[in-house]
């Protein structure tokens, strides 16, 4: 009986320890209860980021979840750098081309697409939900070049709709720009050619992924170089990619985006 009682008490202790867990040190909306969120908003955490990723092919050497994983890692670093900022779940379903006939990345298995108007409505609805719950600054950042214009248009439309309120939407082009065009001169200064850097799944893209989550990069495919061409969805030459180069881009993305968010949040608003 005493042995049984001991097991029972141990079970109750373990169960109660899990059941009475404290609020986590997390910037992710989905990790919080609604009351914990409400308390954070009341205490001044009124900025929220909607990070947008996407599920698309990146050649035979990089996993389909590249954009979602990068968006999650980088948006957390950005939120913590800004302070008093939370993050909504990563949006994975984005415009990637048509299905009939298949165009762009839709020609490769695993890529998922939605129409542009559906994407815009989804982002706008999510932003409006967050406004309803008390956030004053809704920040939009995105991994993929194809929908940067959509995010900008959604922010503009929301700000027109919200003009009579103190709430604002902010599209941050700094996020994508520092992963692409602003990263290219850095790579060139380290001896990489434009052909290597590429426009999709080349040195720039692959190095950033290696720095953030190397599990998604197939090193054997990089070493052999087989199939790393446009016919297989690679527009660049990623063979000399490195985590060292990727870290330079990651640092710039976080620093420049966080600075831009702080400036946007601090800007005077009316009413």
Q: Percent of residues in helical segments?
A: 40-55%
Choose one word for the global shape.
Answer: globular
> What is the CATH homologous superfamily assignment?
Creatininase
Give the helices and strands as they follow along the chain.
Answer: HHEHEHEHEHHHHHH
Q: What class, by secondary structure content?
A: alpha/beta
Which helices and strands, and how do they pair?
Elements: H1 2-19, H2 34-42, E1 47-52, H3 66-82, E2 85-87, H4 116-132, E3 137-142, H5 148-161, E4 168-171, H6 173-177, H7 184-189, H8 194-197, H9 203-212, H10 219-224, H11 243-266
Parallel strand pairs: 1-2, 1-3, 3-4
Walk me through the structure.
- This protein has 271 residues and is α/β, with parallel strands linked by helices.
- The protein has a single domain, classed as Creatininase (Rossmann fold), CATH 3.40.50.
- It is 48% helix and 7% strand.
- The chain contains 11 helices and 4 strands.
- Strands 2-1-3-4 form a 4-stranded parallel sheet, sandwiched between helices.
- Helix 3 crosses helix 11 (243-266).
- The chain is globular, with a radius of gyration of 22 Å.
- The chain starts with a helix and ends in a 5-residue tail after the last helix.
- The model has no long low-confidence stretch (mean pLDDT 93).
């Amino acid at each position: 009986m005493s042995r049984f009682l001991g097991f029972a008490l141990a079970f109750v202790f373990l169960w109660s320890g899990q059941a009475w867990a404290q609020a986590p040190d997390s910037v992710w909306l989905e990790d919080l209860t609604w009351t914990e969120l409400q308390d954070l908003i009341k205490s001044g955490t009124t900025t929220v980021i909607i990070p947008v990723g996407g599920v698309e092919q990146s050649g035979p050497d990089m996993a389909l979840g590249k954009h979602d994983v990068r968006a999650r890692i980088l948006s957390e670093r950005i939120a913590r750098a800004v302070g008093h900022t939370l993050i909504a779940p990563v949006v994975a379903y984005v415009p990637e081309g048509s299905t009939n006939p298949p165009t762009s990345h839709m020609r490769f298995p695993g890529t998922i697409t939605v129409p542009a108007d559906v994407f815009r409505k989804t982002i706008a609805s999510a932003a409006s939900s967050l406004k309803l719950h008390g956030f004053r600054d809704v920040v939009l950042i995105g991994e993929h070049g194809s929908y940067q214009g959509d995010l900008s248009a959604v922010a503009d439309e929301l700000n027109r709709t919200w003009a009579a309120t103190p709430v604002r939407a902010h599209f941050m082009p700094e996020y994508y720009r520092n992963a692409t065009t602003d990263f290219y001169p850095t790579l060139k200064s380290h001896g990489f050619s434009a052909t290597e850097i590429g426009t999709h799944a080349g040195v720039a893209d692959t190095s950033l992924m290696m720095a953030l989550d190397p599990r998604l990069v197939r090193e054997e495919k990089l070493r052999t170089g087989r199939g790393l061409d446009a016919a297989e969805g690679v527009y660049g030459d990623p063979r000399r990619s490195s985590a060292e180069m990727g870290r330079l881009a990651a640092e710039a993305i976080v620093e420049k985006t966080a600075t831009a968010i702080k400036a946007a949040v601090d800007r005077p608003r009316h009413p």
